[in-house]
Amino acid sequence: MLNYPRGGIVITLDPHESYSVPTQEVIVPVYETLIRYDPDDPSGLVPCLAESWSVSENGYSYIFHLREGVTFTDGTPFDASAVLYSYDRAITLNEEEGFGPGWIVSPIDIDASSIIDPYTVNITLKYPYAPFIYCVASQWGAFIVNPTVCEAYATPEDPWAHEYLKENMVGTGPYMLEEWVREDHVTLVKNPDYWGGWDKPHVTKVYMPIIEESATRRLRLEEGTLDIGGLNLEDSLAVNGTEGIVVEVVPGLTNLMIFMNTQKPPLDNKLIRHAISYMYDYEGTIETIRQGLGTQARGPIPASLWGWDPECPQYTMNLTKAADLIEQAGFEPEDIELDLWYIGTLEEERRCAELLQATAAQVGVTIKLHGVTWATLIDALRPGSGNATDAVDMSILYWWPDYADPIGFLEVMYRCYNDTVPTDIYAYPFYNWGFYSNATLNDILVEVVEITDMEQRIELYHQAQRIIAEDAPCLFLFDSMNILSYKSWVKGYYFNPLYTGTTDFYNIYIEGR
Amino acid sequence: MKLWQYILRRILLMIPLLLGITLITFTVSHLVPGDPARLAAGLHAPTETVETLRRKLGLDKPLHVQYFIYMKNLLRGDLGTSIMTRRPVIEDILSRWSGTIELTTAALIVIIALGIPLGIFSATNRDKPLDHASRVFSLLGVSMPSFWLVLLLLLVFCKYLGLFPLGYRIDPTITLRTITGFNILDSLLNLNFRAFVDSIYHIILPAFALGFQGQATVQRLLRSNMLDSLTQDYVKMARAKGLPERVVVYKHVLRNSLIPVATMLALMYGGMLGGTFIIESLFSWRGLGRYGARAILQLDFPAIMGTTIIYTLIYAFVNLIVDIFYAYLDPRIRY
Q1: Would you tell me the crossing angle of helices B254-282 and B288-298 to the nearest 10 degrees?
Q2: Cα–Cα distance measured from residue A311 to residue B101, given in angstroms and rounded to the nearest whole number
Q3: Which of A433, A506, B273, B315 falls 20 to 30 Å from B193 in CA-CA distance?
Q4: Using a CB-CB distance cutoff of 8 angstroms, which residues of chain B are in contact with residue A402?
Q5: Which residue has the higher pLDDT, A198 or B178?
């Protein structure tokens, strides 16, 4: 048995409703997607319920060849009808009920999609969307559920059997739900008929208590009542070197940005934004705040994601240059006073904000800090007037992608839908906290999802990153590294940066406990 | 007025009280900045999803309409569905209230066990060095904010000394069959000795933190009451009769001084419920206080309202009991 701590309660067991990490920790081992993301594979994608796939030249249609001989845990065979049913369910529940994650597969045109034969399915999109193949491999919303079970429990008020799937799990994955004690623990056991087989050593049972505090987890890891620690940075470093505990550093896909409101003076002046970009102590952040775990970001997407541009310009701390740029822009440093908002409970955000405040003060620029709740921050970013010039000057944001395509970073934070009204906050996606708009970039972001040629896409992504870095709508602080801590008897533990917060138990085995 | 008439009147008075409380809580919680629909839809959800959910949750309607819908459902006994747990609020509350009552009761025991002996001791040793010491201790108690005390306790007893566990009601590896929801009672009913010891071990620190201020108040009140009584004629009379000092203090002085303390204790019980918001959050204690605190942070309106209503009811109920009890303690009081 593997003892694994979870960070919070399971809200729902319905894979098309769940959009929170502590819930997903239980869903991912039980439900599967057609394909999975693998950062070590050249294409980034590996088979799961689909053995192979192809895209039509116009980018509209995807053919998936499904794995044969797969059954759900109730014995029903998995086939093409389950795929169409599942996507239909995810999309409808998202559109009608506002369930979180179904938007990921929303480019699918269900009516135009079809079953070619029981093990071949044609998924047609409403519009060409090249990142779609990565959406299929997302750990949110793209799971295949069992239509037989759903239809058996459907009612006229609840045609998708949400009430049943909320409380019960029937998946194709390596594990099944044995016990769910609400707000206490979850136990998973092996699915004896799993298509991957149980010939090799695997964990056959996972006990998952809720243990929120890292300090408690650490004590348990040390005494051996937890096999995997899930510790925060501070505790991981503290147990590093302890006999019998492995601490491992792996690249992640999360990055941290400080956005600057590009519609609001003086930050609407690119020179001022450049000046502030030169004020930040990037190296100091990695050394002291991140304890060496991370690298300075180069542009808006993390270095471990495909499409990242190694040539993208990067800012380093240079206070003289910052002062020169302010002068060049026709300002006195003393006249610049900016508000920087962050989430007060996030220690790392606070420290980064304080660091910028300190170095800016050396130049003569005043930065006032506002540590607030998430809700207050959102409110400050969405002023009632709908005018971006009334929003806050600067704000800090962590981002991680929902699927492994750079568009997951670029579209949400740097796109503008209507650049003729740049001060209208509704012209921007919700997370474009810099209210940043660049016509060339907007065109690239439209084109890059329409074409399927990988080389061309990568080239467009490189261009996009350079434009953004040059315009500097935000400070690119760092790409994070994740830190794993576990007992040395745990083998095969692997961190998939896209599937943050969830663990591939199937490939783990215990040796020498 | 007869006692039953009095009780009936008090219960009827709870209706305007509840109406007022719901109105104030509803207005204040909706005036706080933030977007509960976005929090509920998931941080990365696109705007369309958030808007759909907003409609589903009824958050797109004008505030007064939302209030009337809420009150209409409330009259039918429906407290709504929590946005964060997606469960009926009443179920959430029922699964948590025992944790809060258990903790508050334990805190009351701390208050009695510390406050009363220290108060007696202080009064009978008036102006001696130990009296001063215990008065400093009580002054510390009434003036120290509880959140600060908790942090201090956690730091010293959990982190540095490692004497107590860092939160939770019971060790997560212990399985305890739920009967009443009160872990200490359940472990006895299940004859699970390990769970019993562990539950007590877990409750000591939070109960101490919750009751610390109360014990100081009790100590001070008892001391001044006793000092007052000690100068009364009936005490002089008792002493003149040649009764031993122990009998004078415990039989005559203490008994009379305890009446206001008893009232105070009951009122404190209600007052401490408010303290559970902070104490439970800091100790990861599964109870209503932590639930309410989280609901506020997540802007989970149905949960905020539900918690407030339940706390109001408990508070009003405890007050009623105190008033009735008072009549028994002091026969001069009539309603």
Answers
A1: 40
A2: 62
A3: B273
A4: 44
A5: A198
